[in-house]
Structure formats: structure tokens, C-alpha cells
Amino acid sequence: MRTIDLHCYPNTEPWIRAQGPYVEALSRYWHRAWRAKTEEAVVQDFKDAGIQAVLVAFDIETASGTPPCTNDYVAKMRDEHRDTIIQAWASVDPWKGEIAIQEATRAIRELGMLGFHFHPIMGHFSVGDRRLYPLWETINALKVPVMIDVGTTGMGAGQPGGMGARLKHARPIPALDDLAADFPDLTIVAAHPGWPWIDEVTAIVLHKKNVSWELSGWAPKYFPDALKKDIGGRLQDKIMFGSDYPSIPHERLFREWEELGYPDEVMDKVFHKNAERILGL
After folding, report:
1. Could you check whether the bond before residue 67 is cis, i.e. omega within 30 degrees of 0?
2. Angle at which helices 172-182 and 198-207 pack, to 10 degrees?
3. Could you give phi then psi for residue 20, rounded to 5 degrees?
4. Whole-angstrom distance, CA of residue 88 vs CA of residue 117
């Protein structure tokens, strides 16, 4: 079965540096060292897992003061390994204003990237903030999708004050719902299950035709029962696979997805057909 992984970070030194002060906190959260690999080792991980990866750039420079893992970097990594890395999500820091708008245009027109990924908690913004609407208008005009993290994060988890991150920035209602309503032609992918607001994401995905859902960053055995039922039922045409690499080993993800017991027809949709149809991959 073709397996498209929509949410893979480069896991190399530029990506580690881009996370700045959160690296140590992530090591504690995942109970292992958060260390960089070489590009060759990362690509080999993808090959060993049998996936076709979509890389994710990372830019939270305004909030973190650290240099981004740039669009040029992930686009180059994609271009050098097209047999394994089929596309890449661009990233722009919304707080950079006109610079972000110009970079968004360049990422699509010059680098040929898939669309954009946003990490609201770590970027310290809400996608429903009207001050950011000129950026969404630009992306909408470019006719490319966005993937937006929802729910809590391991970045800063368990630290005093969550290291300044505010969970409300990634609450689906009202932010994601407002964005989907105000830009009905914008293809939106909610990234991660969205705990503790999984039911809110379910409601939005069912209500808004332009919103779909990839379930990276969680071990499938921990999906709530209602979500497990919906994946095989009313949401089966909206769910897509992502790993959040390097967070959880692919071997574990595939084993636990299989243990959920869905028929091949549903698994085909989750692992590739929905991404092909919704994102043109």
C-alpha cells in the first residue's frame, strides 16, 4: 500500500536549532535525547519505514529568537531525494508581516512547495487573529493548502508557565472554525488529534467541507473511542496519515493502526487516497 506521511520534520541540525529553548523540554517530554541526524540518516529512516514523506519547514523566529529551518533548506532536501520525499510544507512566521507575505509567495512560485504549515502555540498566535488575515488572503490567492496544528504540544510541556506558550492559540473553536468560514476556498488540514478538544475538531471537519484532518503525533491506541469509530465511519473520507517524525517510530504507528482493525478500503483512504484527492499528491 502506498503510504504518504504528511507530517515529517527534517530532524537535522537546522531543525533542532530552530526549536531553540524547547529542545531540552522536548527531551524530557519524550523521555529521550532530542538530537539531530544527518540528512542521509533521515532519508534512510523514511526508506526503512516505506513511506513517501512530506517535510515540514519551521519558523517561530519572532517568538523564540532562533533562526528558522528555512523553506530553501527543506525544498533542497526534497529536491535531492525525490524518490522518498515527495513534497514539503513551507513555513512563514505570521508576525513578520509583509516579509511573511513575500516569503509565502516565493515559497510557492519559486520553490514549488505544497502549501504552508503553522504551529500556533509555539509561534504565539491564533489563526483567527484578524491582524494576520492579509497573510491568509495571500495564501488563499496562491490556491495552496495550509496545515495547522491543533491541541496541546510537548514543546514546553511540564515547564514553568509552559515556557510562555498558551494553549488557547491552538484551540480549534473559534480560531480554526473562523478561518474555515472566512476562507471557504482555502483547503485546511488540522494537524494532530487536537486533545483536549478532539470533539471540536470533529465538529469542524464534519461542518466545514474545506477542512480535513491528519492524526500525527499520537499513538493510535490512545485515540478516544468516538474518534476510532468516526475514522471508520463518517470521517473516513477526511482522515489522513502523519507521523510527526521523529516523535513516534513508524513501526509502532503502523502496528497500532493495524490493531485498530479497519478494513483495507478505509486504510487505503487514510494512508494515501485522501491525500491524493485532497492535496493532489
Report:
1. no
2. 20
3. 50, -120
4. 9
Residue 24's nearest CA partner among 131, 155, 210 is 155
- Domain CATH for 209: 3.20.20.140
Question: How many domains is the chain partitioned into structurally?
Answer: 1
pTM (2 decimals)? 0.96
Residue 216: give the domain boundaries. Answer: 4-163+170-279
d(CA 36, CA 34): 7
At which residue does the C-alpha cell 526534497 appear? 78
pLDDT in tens, the chain (281 residues): 999 999 999 999 999 999 877 777 777 776 777 789 999 999 999 999 999 999 999 999 999 899 999 999 999 999 999 999 999 999 999 999 999 999 999 999 999 999 999 999 999 999 999 999 999 999 999 999 999 999 987 776 777 787 788 999 999 999 999 999 999 999 999 999 999 999 999 999 999 999 999 999 999 999 999 999 999 999 999 999 999 999 999 999 999 999 999 999 999 999 999 999 999 99
The C-alpha angle 106, 149, 110, rounded to 5 degrees, equals 10
**Cis peptide upstream of residue 174 (ω within 30 degrees of 0):** yes
